[in-house]
Amino acid sequence: MTNDIFGALHRRDLLSLLGGVAALSALPRQSRAQAAGSVAALKLGFIGSGREGGALGTLFAKKGHPVMFSSRHPENLKELIASAGPSATAGTVEEAVAFGDVIVLVVPYTAVEQIGKEHGKALAGKRLLLDVSNPIARRDGEDFVKQVNEMGGAGLATAKFIPGAKVVRGFNAIGSGKLEPGAAKADGKLGVPIAGDDKGAVELAEALIRQIGFEPVLVGGLAMGKYLVPGTPLGGEHSPEELKQIAATLKA
Ligand SMILES: NC(=O)c1ccc[n+]([C@@H]2O[C@H](COP(=O)([O-])OP(=O)(O)OC[C@H]3O[C@@H](n4cnc5c(N)ncnc54)[C@H](OP(=O)(O)O)[C@@H]3O)[C@@H](O)[C@H]2O)c1
Q1: What percent of the chain has pLDDT over 70?
Q2: Less Cβ crowding at N or C end of the chain, within 10 Å?
Q3: What is the distance in A from the centroid of ligand 1 to the CA of 97?
Q4: For position 181, what pLDDT does the model report?
C-alpha cells in the first residue's frame, strides 16, 4: 500500500489533476496553493449527516472537497452547511448519491439494507463507499446485531446489503468529538483503522484520511470490518503503531 498520495490516484484523477494544474496557473499564488492542497477535490456525498456524518463531512468541506450532506429532510441541514463553509451543500439521499464520486455512509446500521435496495445500483458504480456505520445492540436491537454477525459482521454484511459496492470501513470507533479540525493524539497522529477488499478503494480511503490529518491503518480485508466497531480492542484512541500491534492479535 503506497504512502504517496499520488500513488493512490487513478489515471483519471491524474488527468484531472493535470487539467487542474493548467487551470491553477491562471490563479493568484495564494489561491493556487489552496487549490493544490485539495488534491483532486473529489466530490463526497454523505448518506447520514448527523453527529458523525456532519463532523466528518465538515472536515472534508474545510479541505475544499465539494461535499453534499443529505437527509430525508434536507431543509433541516441549513445550520450544518452554513458552518461547514462554501464547499458544502445539502440534498436528498438520492441527490447525494448522484453527486458523489465517493459516498460516505454514516447511518444507523439498520438503514443500510434499505439504502442498498433503493440506491444499490448507483452505489455499486462509485469508486469508494466509506462505511462508518455500526451495528449497536443498544440502538439496533440484539436480534439485528446477531443477524449481522451471522453475515460475517459489519463489513461483509455491508457488502451483502449493497452488492458490488467498493466498501471500506473506517472512522467507526472515532467519536464525532474527535473529528475536530486538528484533533490528534497529543503525542502524534491519531490512527484510523480501516478494512476493505478493493485495492483502489482502500488507497483512495487512505489518501482521503491522510488529507484530513489522520493516519490510516489497514487492518485487513472486509472480514476484519467486524472489529471496527466501538468496544473492540481497535476501538477508541490509538496511535498508528498501537493499532498495528492490536490488529496483529486479531483473526478475520
Ligand atoms: N456519533 C459518533 O460519535 C459515531 C462515531 C463513529 C461511528 N458512528 C456511527 O455512525 C452512524 C451514525 O451515527 P450518528 O451518531 O451520526 O447518528 P445520528 O446523529 O442519529 O445521525 C443519523 C443520520 O442517519 C440518517 N438516516 C437514518 N436513517 C436513514 C435512512 N433510512 N436513510 C437515509 N438516512 C438515514 C439521518 O438522516 P435523517 O435526517 O434523514 O433522519 C441522520 O443524518 C451510526 O451507525 C454510528 O454507530 C457514530
Answers
A1: 81
A2: N
A3: 16
A4: 66
